[in-house]
Design a protein that fits this description.
mainly alpha, elongated
């Protein structure tokens, strides 16, 4: 029987790919509609992975529309929250 904490950790791990894909799709839409600079799904996926993992964005680091700037900052904070608060709680 799986412990409750193990089930919660499993759900969190399963939700991470969904979060990355959802963030990538939102980024694609925002870049196309708000910035007028469309990104492919692969480019958006790389951006989302970098933002959520807090490893960086690569060359994609300039946003002019305020909504995109707020979206980017929000995703960065979600990544920091996940990596530095949620995962350590489960590992301890």
């Amino acid at each position: 029987m799986m412990l409750r904490s193990q089930r919660r950790l499993s759900k969190l791990i399963a939700a991470l790919p969904l979060l990355v894909v959802a963030t990538a799709l939102l980024y694609m839409a925002g870049m196309a509609w708000l910035e007028g600079s469309p990104r492919s799904f692969t480019q958006a996926l790389q951006w989302a992975g970098g933002a959520i993992s807090t490893t960086g964005f690569g060359p994609d680091t300039l946003w002019h529309h305020p909504v995109m700037a707020v979206f980017v900052v929000t995703v960065e904070f979600i990544g920091v929250f996940l990596l530095f608060l949620i995962f350590p709680i489960y590992l301890i």
